[in-house]
Specification:
The protein is α+β, with helices and mostly antiparallel strands. 55% of the residues lie in helices and 16% in strands.
Length: 482
């Protein structure tokens, strides 16, 4: 698998405004949280450094007070010396650290500064807080040589709280000495600052997510209005326009262009309608005159052949007039009202209408229809269904069957009409003239223009039409989008 790196501009170009707003809010909250953590760590390190300096001062004072005892070796120290050192440490513990606070004050308030001590000689019992020697800590070279940060759990130094201690561990002669200071907790001011920054980060995150949600809903509403205008225009209704500023100002330019396009399309369709009206007006009168003259010619014809030719010419003019009227009706469909139409009822009505013709030709019509509603112009859909049934009945052989089926496939309405005739080339829809000449060669009436008319109606309703081999015959299937 190949991966492609996207630069910042390319990445931003693929984000929605909602995602950008949410991302900015999250990054701002993370930045505040990071700065808060960095500030807290810096304050904590400063407190440890202060405790380390105090512990080093205590260590120096303690070694200075030992005097000659600090040079004793393991061979020189006696049990009496060890007892003396223990008593001396107890006295020293209560002396120099008073100005910094006692252990009782640290345990009750949580404030640091209290000093703790420990001393071990080669003989005798050690004195002081043994946990300074036994508790493992973290060595911190930047605070000084032999300096460790030790955490004393609750109950070790204070009965009700855990404390952090900076400890200086060094050997003086034969003595192991550990001197520590309790690290001061974060002050109330820092606590309030932490709370304020955390609250600001939370509010910023909530505000960003709220703004992103609002922007998404506003954009979704604006896009829905634009889509609604385009959907209505797709079925010939140009009465709706997209809002240009009311819902989403950032879409003003887009909606303006959409409305200009719809205005232009409406203007072009109006021009086509006027042109079609003029052509229809120009053709209706000559067609009517030609029909009347053929009727008189048929009456005046002296031979059966002449009368038959006049009849065929009259039928041709009738089909031409019907095709023109259907085209005009389809053109005028843009002004008709869309409503909920039951395909199963249209199929049953068409079957009932053509039942007498089917019985006359020895053809059986079967209807298998489930209740399936669609949104459309009832009269146009009725014409489409009757055209398909008319085509199937007329082209079915004697004893054949025509099957109408209405159903749902994957939630989409589907109507199909199958016959047992000679079949139909799907390319006939793209070249109706081929159907006319082919049908004439075979001595039957052509329905190529009828199928093209059906396809135009279905296209106006957002549906598609397919012609398949029924082996024998053909099956015409109309699939609706909703």
């Amino acid at each position: 698998m190949a991966f492609r790196f996207l630069g910042p501009r390319a990445w931003l170009g693929r984000r929605t405004s909602t995602q950008l707003a949410a991302g900015i809010a999250v990054m701002a909250a993370l930045a505040l949280t990071g700065s808060l953590m960095a500030t807290g760590a810096a304050v904590r390190m400063d407190q440890r450094e202060k405790a380390a300096l105090a512990a080093l001062d205590d260590y120096g004072a303690m070694v200075g007070k030992l005097g000659a005892e600090s040079s004793l070796t393991a061979a020189d120290i006696t049990a009496a010396d060890a007892a003396y050192l223990s008593a001396w440490l107890s006295a020293f513990q209560d002396g120099p650290a008073r100005d910094a606070g006692t252990i009782e004050e640290t345990c009750s308030t949580g404030r640091g500064g209290a000093g703790v001590r420990f001393i071990r000689a080669p003989v005798g019992k050690p004195a002081g807080l043994a946990a300074l020697e036994t508790t493992r800590g973290v060595r911190v070279p930047r605070l000084g040589d032999g300096v460790h940060v030790v955490r004393l759990d609750r109950g070790v130094l204070c009965p009700s709280r855990a404390v952090e201690v900076v400890v200086v561990r060094r050997a003086v002669g034969a003595l192991d000495i550990a001197v520590g200071r309790v690290v001061d907790r974060s002050g109330d001011a820092l606590g309030w600052a932490v709370a304020a920054v955390a609250a600001a980060a939370g509010l910023l995150l909530v505000f960003g997510l709220t703004a992103a949600t609002f922007a998404r809903r506003r954009l979704t509403g604006a896009v829905a209005e634009v889509s609604r205008a385009l959907d209505r225009a797709s079925v010939g209704d140009f009465s709706i326009r997209a809002p240009e500023t009311a819902l989403a100002p950032e879409l003003t330019e887009l909606t303006g262009q959409v409305n200009l396009t719809l205005d232009r399309l409406e203007e072009l369709l109006s021009w086509l309608r006027d042109s079609a009206d003029q052509l229809a007006h120009d053709f209706r009168t000559p067609l009517a005159r030609a029909s009347a003259r053929l009727d008189r010619l048929k009456e005046a014809a002296s031979t059966p052949e002449a009368r038959a030719l006049a009849t065929e010419a009259r039928a041709d003019l009738t089909r031409l007039t019907r095709a023109m009227n259907e085209a005009m009706a389809l053109r005028d469909g843009e002004a008709w009202v869309f409503e909920t139409v039951r395909l199963d009822r249209l199929a049953a009505s068409a079957a009932e209408l053509y039942q007498p013709l089917a019985e006359e030709r020895g053809v059986v019509i079967r209807v298998e229809a489930a209740p399936v509603p669609v949104l459309g112009v009832r009269s146009l859909l009725q014409r489409a269904v009757t055209n398909l049934v008319d085509n199937a009945v007329k082209f079915s052989p004697e004893g054949g069957a025509v099957e109408l089926r209405v159903r749902l496939e994957d939630g989409r309405p589907v109507l199909s009409v199958a016959d047992q005739g000679p079949g139909l080339d799907p390319d006939i829809l793209d070249d109706p003239a081929r159907a006319v000449s082919s049908a004439a060669d075979e001595g039957r009436e052509s329905h190529g223009m009828g199928l093209a008319y059906v396809r135009a109606i279905l296209k106006r309703h957002g549906a598609s039409m397919a012609i398949d081999d029924a082996a024998p015959g053909a099956v015409v299937t109309a699939r609706f989008s909703r």
